[in-house]
Design a protein that fits this description.
Elements lengths: L4 E7 L4 H10 L2 E8 L2 E9 H8 L9 E5 L2 E12 L6 E8 L5 E11 L5 H4 L3 E4 L3 E7 L7 E4 L8 E3 L10 E2 L7 E6 L13 H40 L1
Length: about 240
């Protein structure tokens, strides 16, 4: 097991909104440390360190060593509150981990060998149902990711959780069914064929065709009107 990343933290003397604002002005994020049958502690952690870990994409599935004023505790992040407007962290909770503790985490899924899928080669699309899989596992054995091999998959094929090899001691939280992780599907609509009229062109053509008889009819009516005028003139001359 790799050595846990250490995060520096400080015990907070003031709680509430006023204390939280004061911590943020100091470049820290207020938080709470709880679990392991001990009383919760109000703490703060360095903003830059937390923001850097958030960018890794697996902050809440990583075990850290939290150093609170020299006292080190093994923890895992459980909740991160973000500013609703500017989307930066404003509060974080950590769960203490006892020896042999089990945790529930979201593990990302990686899809391999897309070029070896006949279905994708023929124009199919990889439809990812679950980008992450929630599992229950020992805190010391959290998988970095799960690999899904797409080799040989045709359009209409599906990958279920039973097809993914899970490490020992790791099990999905959903156990009552063999849920789908991804499928290979056909394209929902064909791309336009080169040289074929587009929908807009077809509409314009139909409108032009509908208008043509009307225009032709007007041309035919003009000679009749002229004949009537000539006949009227002849009658007037006779009178």
């Amino acid at each position: 097991m790799a050595e846990a990343i250490e995060l520096k933290a400080w015990a907070r003397q003031r709680s509430g909104k006023g204390g939280a604002r004061a911590e943020r002005r100091e470049g820290r994020i207020p938080g709470t440390l709880y679990g392991d049958r001990k009383d919760p502690e109000t703490i703060s952690v360095e903003y830059r360190a937390i923001n850097l870990q958030l960018q890794s994409g697996h902050f809440q599935s990583t075990v850290f060593t939290l150093n609170v004023d020299g006292s080190k505790t093994r923890v895992i992040p459980r909740a991160v509150q973000l500013d609703p407007v500017r989307d930066f962290p404003i509060h974080v909770d950590f769960l203490r981990l006892s020896k042999d503790a089990l945790v529930t985490v979201e593990v990302p899924v990686h899809f391999l060998n897309e070029a070896a899928s006949p279905g994708l080669k023929r124009g199919g699309v990889l439809n990812v149902v679950r980008h992450e899989i929630q599992v229950r596992c020992p805190a010391d054995a959290i998988p970095d990711h799960f690999d899904v091999d797409l080799t040989g998959l045709e359009i209409g094929d599906a990958v279920h959780i039973s097809a993914i090899k899970l490490p020992e001691g790791v099990r999905p939280t959903t156990t009552e069914r063999d849920f789908t992780v991804a499928t290979i599907v056909g394209r929902s609509a064909e791309e336009p064929v080169a040289g074929a009229p587009t929908a807009e062109a077809a509409v314009l053509g139909a409108e032009a065709a509908a208008a043509a008889p009307a225009e032709g009819g007007d041309d035919k009516e003009k000679p009749k009107e002229e004949k009537k005028k000539e006949e009227k003139k002849k009658e007037e001359k006779k009178k």
